[in-house]
Amino acid sequence: MIKLKNVETIYEGERTPVIKNINLEIKKEEFLTVIGSNGAGKTTLLETINGLLESRGKVIVFGKDIRKSGTGIRKNIGYVPQDFSCDSSTPFLVKDVVMMGRFGKIGVLKSPSKKDHEIVKKTLNFLGISEFEKKPIGKLSGGQLQKVMIARALAKEPEILLLDEPFSNLDLNSQDDISEKISFLNEKGMTIIMIVHDISSIPERCKRIVMMDNGNIVMDDGREKVLGG
Amino acid sequence: MIVLPAKIILFAILGAFLTGIACSLVGSFVVRMNLSSLGFCMSHAAFAGAALGLLLYLNPLVMAIIFSILVAFILGPIAEKAKLNTDVVIGIIFSLMISLGLIFLSFSPGTAMSSTALSILWGSILGVTINDILRLTVITFSIILIIVLFFKEFQAIMFSRKMAEASGINTKPFYYLILFLTGVTVALSLKLVGGLLVFALMINPASSAYQFFYDMKKITIFSPIIGVFCCFLGILLSFFLDLPTGASIAITSSLFFGLSVLISPKRKRG
Q1: What is the Rg, in whole angstroms, of the alpha carbon atoms belonging to chain A?
Q2: Are A174 and A222 members of one domain?
Q3: Which residues of B touch A83 (CB under 8 A)?
């Protein structure tokens, strides 16, 4: 489903690649967690996979080159960024922000249909945030905003879900709840790639862990081997 | 109070109505994207264009429009290439345009020429012709149509361009379209309220609408309503108090903004 061959990503104006010599293959319905210290290149890896960053080497998603078909591929990838924030006067309601996740899928010159609105409602229910539906996005707490961004990614009904520190800003109860829901989605066939900082928050269902250091993949193995070693 | 022929008054009111809608509509996006200096930059591009027109014995208004549209076209790509905030690039282009305008004027013979170029910055609502009304009608309806057709994409970009891209939207053409629409609106509104005051008409009604709503759709609907209201009230005041019309419209919209801040429900507690 995802294939990275000799991939390196260099930010414009920089000389050293943030990630280098990355070879990674992720199968359909797999649940993979990426761990590593700050600056190891975890977020860069995620943004390289969904084509938000330009890279060298081969990045193939759904059998297509992300550089040539990025916009089309991203219609089936849900992405939750790390620590997303917005100012208190941001003029959007929660339901609008969640609906935005579907805009690429709906397509240009088309309006959201009744079905799209139903999916948004269903997603808000799934994450237990229906009560915020009509709240301005800028008035939410960090944890509530995090759940809305997860809802936005899920409203797309993606085949692949990329989560960058999804548990940040969440209290322990919410962490458990979101962890269960991510596992449930994987059980239903969604491919999950998740970055976490705290290894204790890795869901039981995740069986493969990739460890990064200084832009390289230093370990890629089963949960017990990586965490046990 | 000055008594003017009915035709002039009718054209002035029609012109104000159309400019109020066009400027305030694009203004709702300009304010959200923190591009408030865009109107100012475009108006000085128009000034440089008019000055070049005078130097080369070409129609100054046509040249003003060409320069504004040209700036609207290059702004987005330059900001992206330079990896700078668009507002910074606007500042650079603004200083370039005002300098070019002054150089062109220094080569133009006679002071009458200079005042023609400077008139681009001030405008004259009472000098609006049927051709101006037709041009404004076309641009206003084009803007409404474009916003209706692509509101979904514009909305996603207004929230976060990066997240819009991650949602599967190719944001570049839509972002450039917003800049381009702003440029064209400024260029075609110049004769009516002038380059300097088009800025007020673009920012003030939209900023007032932002004081009342958290919903981009409502802001986009109410911004032109406020814009048209301010234009009419400004014209009325200018007729009764014998004030320059453009300045009167700008003051009205500024006062409306002040009032909006005072009564904004966003600042109420409980």
Answers
A1: 17
A2: yes
A3: none
